[in-house]
Amino acid sequence: MNSYITQSEQETINLGAEFAKTKLKAGDVVALFGDLGSGKTRFVQGICKGFGITEHVASPSFTIVNEYNTGSLIIYHFDFYRVKSIDEIVDIGFDDYINADGICVIEWAERVTGLLGSRFEVHFSLGDAENIREIKIVQLNT
Ligand SMILES: Nc1ncnc2c1ncn2[C@@H]1O[C@H](COP(=O)(O)OP(=O)(O)OP(=O)(O)O)[C@@H](O)[C@H]1O
Ligand SMILES: [Mg+2]
Q1: Is beta strand 2-6 parallel, antiparallel or unpaired with respect to 29-33?
Q2: What is the pLDDT of residues 60-88, one digit of tens each?
Q3: Is the CB–ligand 1 distance for residue 37 below 6 Å?
Q4: Which long-range contacts (CB under 8 A, 24 or more apart) does 92-100 make?
Q5: Is the CB of residue 123 below 6 angstroms from any atom belonging to ligand 1?
Q6: CATH number for the domain harbouring residue 121
Q7: What 3-state DSSP class applies to 105?
Q8: CA angle, 109 then 36 then 29, to 5°
Q9: pLDDT the model gives residue 70
Q10: Full domain range(s) for residue 122
């Protein structure tokens, strides 16, 4: 496990970009855990930046997934904060996304851990001061 402290949103974005460049490849799943405002979306912005995406990255709010095409692969950005039941997730064909060749990045992944296989988990927590975040990254192979 790797543990990091970031002191600004930019540092979290940079960490996501570095993680993407050094660790991620087609087919990977990244499950994000942590409270509201803990930095999950900033980290996803960094992942996309690491793959050269220049368009604005925000959580899908009216759809369940946003797609970013890097040219060589697609990044699927899920946010399950608002889902009420696992059926909604199964119904969008979530299984097909995670078994495909894109990269799946999932906010509020605790709602779907039972559906996930091998993955990176990124755990975010608030630090003692306003702009401090603790970020732990672990690779799980199932
Ligand atoms: N070190 C930091 N890393 C990331 N964000 C930070 C940091 N310090 C302050 N912030 C602020 O915290 C907020 C993080 O927002 P973000 O949308 O990334 O959280 P989130 O975990 O995705 O929340 P949600 O569960 O609502 O989707 C932003 O307003 C950002 O400016
Ligand atoms: Mg978010």
Answers
A1: unpaired
A2: 877 889 999 999 999 999 999 999 899 99
A3: yes
A4: 92/64, 92/65, 97/65, 98/29, 100/27
A5: no
A6: 3.40.50.300
A7: strand
A8: 25
A9: 96
A10: 2-140
Percentage with pLDDT > 70 across the chain = 100
Any atom of ligand 1 within 6 Å of the Cβ of 59: yes
What confidence score (pLDDT) does residue 63 get?
82
Residue with the nearest Cα to atom 28 of ligand 1? 37
> Which are the contacts of 16, defined by CB distance < 8 A and separation ≥ 6?
42, 43, 44, 45, 46, 47, 49, 50
**Entry pTM:** 0.97
For 112, phi and psi rounded to 5 degrees?
-130, 15
pLDDT per position as a tens digit, 98-138 = 999 999 999 999 999 999 999 999 999 999 999 999 999 99
Of 13, 30, 42, 134, best ligand 1 pocket probe by most atoms within 8 Å of the beta carbon: 42
Q: Which amino acid is at 126?
A: L
The total domain count for the chain is: 1
Tokens coding 55: 């368009």
